[in-house]
TrEMBL record:
Highest taxon of source: Eukaryota
Protein name per Swiss-Prot or TrEMBL: Dehydrogenase/reductase SDR family member 7
Pfam families: adh_short (PF00106)
Organism: Trichechus manatus latirostris (Florida manatee)
Keywords: Oxidoreductase, Signal
Family note: Belongs to the short-chain dehydrogenases/reductases (SDR) family.
Keyword Signal (UniProt): yes
């Protein structure tokens, strides 16, 4: 359920329990899904945590659960409300973290939103929103934190990208574009930082993972979300995805693919036979669009045969 380098790192590499202790880790999108689970698993490693998202009460809930389940004390977790699209607030937020903990070892750029709509039906505002949030929000926060990492000549920048940043699927053109943009940007930034070997850039690309991503996905209009999480039984467990993310961070892997098949296979195939892969995506995607148009959950109804096989 991961690319070969990641699987090797899980087998033979450095353990998160050895490598990630005593660090200050800032997680965006920590109020739900992958970010929330990251908070729980990180809190067991004894790091200092900064939890960011827009809803303070949800972040407080996550903080309480971290304190119940981990070894941290209240002072080790900072709840810092942050809207990724409000880029003018990012500098001040970074200062608050530095004042509180004195350093930032790991920035996990996780906050984001997906999409479920056909391009022809979708307002341009949706495309602006997805680029503002998923791409520019991440770039902006990284721009605020990076000078501090350069000063210390160390730090880990983690981007929660997606397999949709490598291959694309119908009904998510704007989401795929924002994730492809992140991959292009951070591969370039990594190369710019080559004179700082202590600063690493990890591009993490999960396939489908259990979370609220579909429920929160934007549709034809920015103000309209899907509202229903759909059937998540065929997706990877959040805890497994996050464990593999921590292994990636502990081993400073530059890019990882975290997914079950057939999604992982599609990513591999896409590297070797792009034309064939896009033909297959077109064939499979046709059914996905039909499901969506008839009001069904595009994914779960599509993956029913797969689920039955698992059962
Ligand atoms: N779940 C999947 O299948 C999957 C697959 C690949 C990649 N991802 C990526 O994982 C990341 C986390 O998503 P998730 O699956 O946990 O979904 P989720 O909807 O459960 O969580 C998204 C988080 O981002 C936050 N967020 C949304 N808009 C924000 C804003 N304007 N400012 C600050 N925070 C904001 C939400 O509050 C929430 O905490 C996203 O970047 C997503 O693209 C998810």
């Amino acid at each position: 359920d991961g690319d070969l380098t990641l699987m090797w790192a899980e087998w033979q590499g450095r353990r998160p329990e050895w490598e990630l202790t005593d660090m200050v880790v800032w997680v965006t999108g920590a109020s739900s899904g992958i970010g929330e689970e990251l908070a729980y698993q990180l809190s067991k490693l004894g790091v200092s945590l900064v939890l960011s998202a827009r809803r303070v009460e949800e972040l407080e809930r996550v903080k309480r659960k971290c304190l119940e389940n981990g070894s941290l004390k209240g002072k080790d977790i900072l709840v810092l409300p942050l809207d990724l699209t409000n880029t003018s607030s990012h500098e001040a937020a970074t200062k608050v973290v530095l004042q509180e903990f004195g350093k930032i070892d790991i920035l996990v750029n996780n906050g984001g939103r997906s999409q479920r709509s056909l391009f022809v039906d979708t307002s341009l505002d949706v495309y602006k929103e997805l680029i503002d949030l998923n791409y520019l929000g991440t770039v902006s926060l990284t721009k605020c934190v990076l000078p501090h990492m350069i000063e210390r000549k160390q730090g880990k920048i983690v981007i929660v990208n997606s397999l949709m940043g490598i291959i694309s699927a119908p009904l998510a053109t704007g989401y795929c574009a924002s994730k492809h943009a992140l991959r292009g940007f951070f591969n370039g930034l990594r190369a710019e930082l080559v004179t700082y070997p202590g600063i690493t850039v990890s591009n993490i690309c999960p396939g489908p993972v259990q979370s609220n991503i579909v429920k929160n996905a934007v549709t034809e209009e920015v103000t309209k979300s899907v509202g229903n999480p759909g059937d998540q039984s065929y997706k990877m467990a959040t805890s497994r995805c996050v464990r593999l993310m921590l292994i990636s961070m502990a081993n400073d892997l530059k890019e990882v693919w975290i997914s079950d098949h057939p999604f992982l296979l599609a990513a591999y195939l896409g590297q070797y036979m792009p034309t064939l892969t896009f033909w297959i995506i077109g064939k499979l995607g046709k059914k996905r669009i039909e499901n969506f148009k008839s009001g069904l959950d595009a994914d779960s109804s599509y993956f029913k045969p797969l689920k039955k096989k698992h059962d």
